[in-house]
Amino acid sequence: MRIEKLQQHVEKLCSASVRANSGCASFEFRGQRPEVNGQSAQIRAPHLRPDFAIDNYQSFRGAADAIALRLKYSDAQLHQQLMPQSNIGQLVFELLEQLRTESLVSDLQPGTRKNLEHRFRQWCKQFCASDTVENQLGLMVFTIAQVVWCRLTSLPMNHQSEDLIEPMRMMIARHIGGALLGMRKNTRDQSVFAQHALVIVEVMDSLIDDSDADTNKEQANENSSGASFSLFLEPESDDNSEISVAGKRPDNVRVRQIIEQLNNYQIFTRSNDQIVKAEQLVLDSQLDDFAKTQAQLLKNQAINIPRLARELAAILPGQQQSGWQFSREQGYIDGRKLNTIVTTPGYRNIFRSQRQLPSGNCLVTLLMDNSGSMKEHIHAISTLIYILTKALEMAGASTEVLGFTTKSWQGGKSYKQWMRQLRPENPGRLCETRHIIYKDADTKLQRAKRGLGAMLKADLFREGVDGEALLWAAKRMQTRPEQRRILIVLSDGCPMESATHQTNANNYLDNHLRQVATMLENSPDIELYALGFGLDLSPYYRHSLALQIPEKMENSIFTQILQMLQRRAV
User: Fold this and answer.
1) Is 295 in the same domain as 327?
2) Which of 283, 333, 342, 456 lies at a C-alpha separation of 20 to 30 Å from 565?
């Protein structure tokens, strides 16, 4: 099982556990982010973020049990009302509320209690093994977490943690003793408990110059070792709200940071890259065979494409009226047909309706991942793309179908060129990208069937550099006159190109994709969506849909896609 699918499997199991234990039926993990009713659950305690690379299943189960207790025993609205203003105060207040709810686990649930203890102790071990211990602010927060956890659970501290925090504990003990006693006595009263927690926040604010908090915070994260251990969490955001441990940052600041990160992305050479029309990659005889195969695949489907087109037209930019259509089965009664009503009672085409011409003010680009793992889905995906393209065209939208892959496996000519140059370190993207045009926006579907049929050629599927493909597709879209531009990515996983992966820092292509996606999502020019086949793509894309595609297409699949688009319809 691929690691992404294994991770998604664990998240599904943990989601089910949280729903069962909390009674919150709408809870779901999406890309490690806890959500309720599709929105962030705003649960930020740092020990609830186990790392799939180093933690075992009991750690994930412990985090899930902790989240369930939080949903069950914490009033989220009250918690946000009492949230302090300072950066460090928000983190500490969030952590203390989480520890309060975990302390309320029932004695009838010894397994849950054991999972909670395991997860917290694992987090403590990871902290002690990281360079974050050298940061004064991080050590103070960790000390508070240790002292409060031991006081609320009556469990002993790890010896390693005890030795580490002893000097800091002695320094702050005289300031927080009363608050600790008050918290322990009022674990079942969130409001009273919060007042004592705020006393601890005030003590920390008085001991730490808040103006230096951001500097300390950055040091705590930058100095972390191993599996990117972090005490402080980055802010989570959704479409309707943004509550952040580190405070809110203006969008323009966020965009500037993303642009700076994108500028750090390196490409060893572009000399071997290719942008090509699909027909140029396939023999004419094969194109004819693929087109016939695709036509046969479409015949086996039971999708009402005209109805889908009408539903798409309803959420795309408006239509223009252009005269009348006669002999319709519904609309306005046509006075010229009154005699027919008398002479032929069963005749129903007696109406007229206004002809609606699409305004042609929308462009939809479908960008397909042509990585090797997508081959197993290609018949279903090519059918979905064809149906969507046809329905969108009937609805008056311009459509473009693009693909991205590499010309060779394992870097090809670019990798050999790097070898000849004595293998300089951190070369950046080290492969030959291939960007494929299956159908351009100026070509109607009827004339693009051979190009779309080329999607069925199996040896076009190699490796994937997703971030650059998004930039390429977006650049093409920005040259178009349409007012609304929609980019839909179709993929089944994370970026992977072996030569780049082996010669650069971990997650090099992965991080670039996240940065590009975030930049486009902050752009007013393009709406970005993603369809994940057998995998949840929400770690990369804010607006995504996970699909399980059967061999025979179902209307429900297109209903889900419509609902995704409709949430942001103009």
Assistant:
1) no
2) 456
Question: Do residues 79 and 197 share a domain?
Answer: yes
- In a domain, residue 71? The reply is yes
Together in a domain, 348 and 385? no
- Let me know if residue 268 belongs to a domain: no
Q: Looking at the predicted structure, is the pLDDT value of residue 522 above 60?
A: yes
CATH code, domain with 433: 3.40.50.410
pTM assigned to the model: 0.63
Give the DSSP per-residue string, 53-96. TT--HHHHHHHHHHHHHHHHH--HHHHHHH--SSHHHHHHHHHH
Q: How high is the pLDDT of residue 215?
A: 47
pLDDT one-digit tens code per residue, 16-30: 999 999 999 999 887
Cβ density class 514-551: b for 16+ within 10 Å, e for less: bbbbbbbeeeeebbbbbbbbbbbbbbbbbbbbbbebee
Distance between first and last Cα of the chain: 40
Strands (E), 447-526: 484-491
H helix or E strand, kind and range, residue 23: none
- pLDDT tens digit sequence for 199-243: 999 988 888 754 344 444 444 444 433 334 555 444 444 433 332
| Residues present in the chain in total | 570
**How many domains does the chain fold into?**
3
Instruction: Specify the pLDDT at position 221.
Output: 45
Residues 348 and 367 in one domain: no
Q: How many CB atoms lie within 10 A of CB 217?
A: 22
Query: For residue 549, is pLDDT > 70?
Result: yes
Alpha carbon distance 559, 190 (integer Å): 42
Range of the domain at 65: 3-249
- DSSP 8-class letter at 410: T
240 and 332 inside one domain = no
Q: Are residues 178 and 210 in the same domain?
A: yes
H helices within 213-337, ranges in order?
A: 213-222, 251-263, 284-299, 305-315
Element (H, E) at 250: none
Using a pLDDT cut of 90, give the percent of the chain over it: 54
User: How far apart (Å, rounded) are the C-alpha atoms in residues 148 and 155?
Assistant: 11
CB 405 within 8 A of CB 371: yes
Is residue 336 in a domain?
yes
Considering only CA atoms, give the Rg of the chain. Answer: 29
Alpha-helical regions (H) of 318-462: 338-343, 378-394, 412-420, 449-453
3-class SS of residue 50: coil
pLDDT digits (tens, 9 = 90+) for 162-209: 888 888 888 888 899 999 999 999 999 999 999 999 999 998 888 875
In a domain, 258, yes or no: no
Of the candidates 74, 90, 105, 42, the one whose C-alpha atom is nearest the C-alpha of residue 193 is: 74
124 and 175 housed in the same domain: yes
Reported confidence tier of residue 130, pLDDT bands at 50, 70, 90: confident
Question: What whole-number distance in Å separates Cα of residue 86 and Cα of residue 368?
Answer: 45
Task: List, in order, residues 6 or more apart from 256 with CB less than 8 Å away.
Answer: none
Instruction: Report how far residue 58's alpha carbon sits from residue 54's, in angstroms, rounded to the nearest whole number.
Output: 12
Q: HEC profile for 357-396?
A: EECCCEEEEEEEECEHHHHHHHHHHHHHHHHHHHHHHHCC
CB 496 within 8 A of CB 509: yes
